[in-house]
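User: Hello! I'm new to structural biology and keep hearing that structure can be predicted from sequence alone. Could you demonstrate with Polar amino acid transport system ATP-binding protein? Please show me the input and the output so I can see what each looks like.

Assistant: Of course. The first part below is the input, the amino acid sequence of Polar amino acid transport system ATP-binding protein. The second part is the output, the predicted structure written as tokens.
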Amino acid sequence: MKPAQPVLEIIGIEKHFGNQHVLKNCSLNVAEGETVVLIGPSGSGKSTLLRCVNLLEPIEGGAIFFRNQDITHQSIEPHKLRQDIGMVFQNFELFSHLTAAENIMLAPMTVLGVSRQDAEALALALLGKVRIPDKADAFPDELSGGQQQRVAIARALAMKPRLMLFDEPTSALDPEMIREVLDVMADLSAEGMTSIVVTHEMGFARRAANHIVFMENGEIIEHASGEHFFNGDVSERAQRFLDQILH
């Protein structure tokens, strides 16, 4: 049987910031329904890789194919691509003057033309999915950091993306709030949401990742199944990083 075409193909991409070579010949495939976790030391290029996939940063070499289409071609309109590729950032970036429900409703109404009634129903359903069904009328400053990040996840899901990108979504949270966000992300993985996650939370990676990608100095050093990675079937450098994170 012919293998399924990947949802995302990253082929040898290159990226510089001035004299700094931040992505070096990076290649990665993500299949439908997979959760791929990117790990590595700070400055290794993980977040930049995500930003290139979402066309927030241009690449200088290589190619990125999303659902068989070269999304780095000049004919691609980034705002249309982002209807299919959702992204959740370290900071929540919610509109402070809108309630949780209104933050979720905004894009479906303005971009997709969804009626206010249908958008409200969708928002309430998504708030239930991210485990805060009682916070629809709360403004961001009335929510904890973990609750705000779950609203941000619901907002991204409201566009019904085919791929979700999570850029260290728990890094700005107090320790007691991290678990509630990771539980929602693990739920999405279990339901088959295709996702790429940059995180240092190895408990989540062990629980949800189909594949672990270890990056260092702009290069993909290791690409292994979650099972092989956590069983120690990796390079000495990747194992050293894992030991530091775990201990």
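User: So the tokens describe the shape?

Assistant: Right, they're a compact way of writing down the 3D structure. Reading them back into a model, for example: The mean pLDDT is 93.
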